[in-house]
């Protein structure tokens, strides 16, 4: 009797867990929730939660469960977590990736497991080539750096010193900016670099001050802009006559309002501003702030929000199938309106196509914002476009 009951119970639990496995789609969300890049993790996690709050947790008849893991910003940790999520949790999608080395470390696992890797943050051009399962909803640095170079030449800037963080996205920003600036007739006087971990900007800022170019072009990753600006002022560069131009990673909405009036007037180029004038963005900013104690969403957050949208819509297209190849096929060519403006996934490269905005930091209702004043529509990653 007891044995029979046990058997029935065991059989029932097998059936119910199989049913659960079938009816639940798991997304492994790997983010730097602690460490130097924690603001990226915080922004994307908040955006993913907001997407589910606004759109529900069921899609194509399946429950969508997000499993959040903290990679602490370390590639080896992210790799181990991705392996565990694929093998133990049987996730249908890997998502997140706050830094380029992390996105690259996980790419072989995505390829081997045939699981889509949705890159919501990292911006080095080559990432989409690391696996046919990578699809990107963030940006590439070349997308922002090329329009910045164009603007600089058109606005009388002739001599530039570049200053970037020495890893994938910084090297892409430096090369894309320098190549375009030189091609349009400008002169690059010096290419300065700082390390990713605990950078000290003082020595390179001193060098820039000594060289006295017309402008200093800067890329630092999200979360380091405030420290850069602080040292820029401490070294007296705000009073040197050297113009500060940048990718929007520097005048990041997450920190911008605390940088002080010294950044008013800084021209920069990027894919998203919390000040973007659209109904979709106004609703997004309001809902994001409400759910996060007044925190302003930044460009990392929209990568997360749109990444979730892309996963939901892909599941709708596959009728709930979690086959990795079918999901990636469904993502290719997808187009929608993001809080940043219209975006789509290039079906050839699996990289994002989006507007890049030229912005000027200004005060709006007493707060600092990147105020868009020109739009370059539907920008494809220039690095991959140049290879064709
Ligand atoms: C990357 C990280 C950032 O914080 C950023 O602003 C841009 C790019 C990266 O690792 O690719």
Could you explain the architecture of this structure?
The chain is α/β, with parallel strands linked by helices. 42% of the residues lie in helices and 24% in strands. It is built from 12 helices and 15 strands. Strands 7, 8, 9, 10, 11, 12, 13, 14 and 15 form a 9-stranded mixed beta sheet that branches. A 6-stranded mixed beta sheet has the order 2-3-1-4-5-6, sandwiched between helices. Helix 4 links the parallel strand 4 and strand 5. Helix 2 packs across helix 10. The chain is globular and about 65 Å long. The chain starts with a helix and ends with a helix. About 1% of the residues have low confidence. It binds 3,4-dihydroxybenzoic acid.
Number of strands: 15
Radius of gyration: 22 Å
Q: What would the average pLDDT be, to the nearest integer?
A: 95
- Tell me the overall shape: globular
Report the helical percentage: 40-55%
Q: Could you give the order of the helices and strands?
A: HEHEEHEHEEHEHEHEHEEHHHEEEEH
Distance between the termini: 72 Å
> Could you state the oligomeric state of the chains shown?
single chain
Q: What is the topology?
A:
Layout: H1 2-23, E1 24-31, H2 38-55, E2 58-59, E3 62-70, H3 75-87, E4 93-96, H4 100-113, E5 117-119, E6 134-136, H5 141-154, E7 159-165, H6 168-183, E8 187-194, H7 202-211, E9 215-219, H8 225-234, E10 243-247, E11 267-270, H9 279-291, H10 299-317, H11 324-331, E12 335-338, E13 341-345, E14 352-364, E15 367-379, H12 382-387
Parallel strand pairs: 1-3, 1-4, 4-5, 5-6, 7-8, 7-9, 9-10, 10-11
Antiparallel strand pairs: 2-3, 11-14, 12-13, 13-14, 14-15
Helix pairs in contact: 2-10, 3-4, 5-6, 10-11
3,4-dihydroxybenzoic acid binds at residues 40, 99-100, 122-124, 168-169, 221-222, 249.
């Amino acid at each position: 009797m007891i044995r029979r009951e046990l058997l029935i119970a065991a059989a029932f639990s097998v059936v119910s867990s199989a049913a659960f496995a079938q009816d639940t789609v798991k997304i492994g969300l790997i983010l730097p929730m602690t460490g130097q890049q924690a603001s990226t993790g915080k922004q994307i996690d908040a955006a993913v939660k907001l997407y589910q709050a606004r759109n529900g947790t069921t899609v194509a008849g399946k429950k969508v469960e997000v499993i959040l893991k903290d990679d602490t910003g370390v590639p080896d940790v992210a790799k181990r977590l991705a392996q565990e999520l694929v093998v133990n949790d049987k996730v249908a999608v890997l998502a997140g990736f706050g830094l380029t080395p992390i996105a690259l470390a996980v790419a072989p696992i995505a390829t081997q497991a045939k699981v889509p890797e949705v890159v919501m943050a990292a911006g080095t051009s080559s990432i989409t080539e690391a696996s046919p399962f990578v699809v990107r909803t963030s940006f590439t640095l070349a997308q922002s750096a090329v329009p910045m170079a164009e603007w600089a030449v058109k606005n009388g800037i002739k001599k530039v010193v570049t200053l970037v963080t020495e890893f994938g996205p910084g090297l892409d920003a430096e090369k894309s900016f320098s190549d375009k600036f030189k091609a349009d007739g400008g002169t690059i006087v010096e290419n300065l670099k700082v390390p990713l971990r605990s950078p000290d900007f003082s020595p390179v800022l001193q060098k820039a001050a000594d060289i006295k170019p017309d402008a200093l072009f800067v890329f630092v990753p999200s979360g380091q802009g405030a420290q850069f600006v602080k040292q820029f002022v401490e070294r007296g560069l705000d009073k040197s006559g050297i113009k500060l131009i940048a990718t929007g990673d520097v005048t990041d909405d997450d920190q911008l309002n605390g940088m002080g009036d010294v950044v008013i007037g800084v021209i920069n180029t990027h894919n998203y501003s919390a000040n973007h004038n659209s109904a979709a963005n106004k609703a997004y900013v309001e809902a994001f702030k409400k759910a996060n104690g007044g925190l302003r969403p930044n460009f990392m957050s929209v990568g997360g929000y749109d990444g979730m949208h892309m996963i939901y819509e892909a599941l709708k297209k596959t009728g709930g199938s979690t086959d990795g190849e079918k999901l990636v096929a469904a993502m290719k060519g997808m187009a929608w309106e993001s809080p940043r403006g219209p975006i789509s996934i290039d079906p050839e490269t699996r990289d994002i196509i989006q507007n890049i905005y030229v912005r000027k930091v200004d005060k709006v209702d007493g707060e600092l914002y990147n105020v868009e004043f020109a739009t370059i529509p539907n920008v494809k990653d220039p690095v991959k476009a140049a290879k064709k």
